[in-house]
Amino acid sequence: MEFTFNSGLHLSDSMEMSLYCIERPAKTSKVKAIPLFLIHGYGSDENDLFSFAEGIPEYYHIISLRAPYPMQPYGNAWYAINFDAEKGKWSDLEQAKASRDLLHHFIQEKCKEKQLDTNKVCVLGFSQGSILSYALALQYPGFYHKFICLSGYINEALAEIKVDIEAYKNITIFASHGTQDQVIPFDWAEKIPSQLHALKIDHVFKSYPVGHGVSPQNFADLLEWLK
Length: 227
Fold this sequence. Notes:
Layout: E1 2-4, E2 10-12, E3 21-24, E4 34-39, H1 46-50, E5 60-65, E6 69-70, E7 76-77, E8 81-84, E9 88-91, H2 93-114, E10 122-126, H3 128-139, E11 146-150, E12 172-178, H4 186-189, H5 192-198, E13 202-208, H6 216-226
Parallel strand pairs: 4-5, 4-10, 10-11, 11-12, 12-13
Antiparallel strand pairs: 1-2, 3-5, 6-7, 8-9
Helix pairs in contact: 2-3
C-alpha cells in the first residue's frame, strides 16, 4: 500500500515495521534512568532533534525516533499532509492515529528493554512530532509524565479525551511557538493554554519572535523547565 501526496511526494506503508531510533544512554548512578523520547517533524529524521542531546542533562536516556513513512527524495513523515485544489491542505488522520499508537507501543517496549523509569517518561516533539506528542498525552496520560511540545498544536481528533479529567493529573507540558511561524499559524497555538486548562493539565506556554523553529532562548527555557 502506498500513500501519495499531490505534490508528488510518496509515503510507503511501513507501519508493520518497528521504528528506527538512535540513542544516548544516561550517565547516572540511579537504578533506572529517565527516558526522553524525541519525535521529529515532517520531512526530517532522527538526527534533527538529536542535536539537542548535547545540552540535555546526562541523567536522561535519550531516544530519537525516525518516522515510519519515507519521503522522496529524502526525509520521513509520521502521516501524510495532502494539498488539494478543492480541499486545500489536510492531514491523513488515520495515518496520524496509527503513528500515535505505534509510538506508544514502541515507547513502552523501549522502556522495558532498557529498564528505564516508567514513572518519569518524557517526550519532546517538534511540529508534526509535537502534534503527536499532544495526542499521546491526551490518549495515554497514565503512562507519561513530561511533554515538551514545540511549534505544534492540539488536534483533538487524534485522541479520545477522557471523561474523568483526573486521568491527566500527573501530566505536565512545556509548550512553545514562534509568533512569526509561517507553517503552523501562531493563532492555532494560542488556543493551547485554554485547551490544557480545561483538562486541568499543568503547563507552561511561551512564545518567541521567530518563525517555525526553536530559538536559542526557547531551547534555554525548555532545558530549565526539564531540569
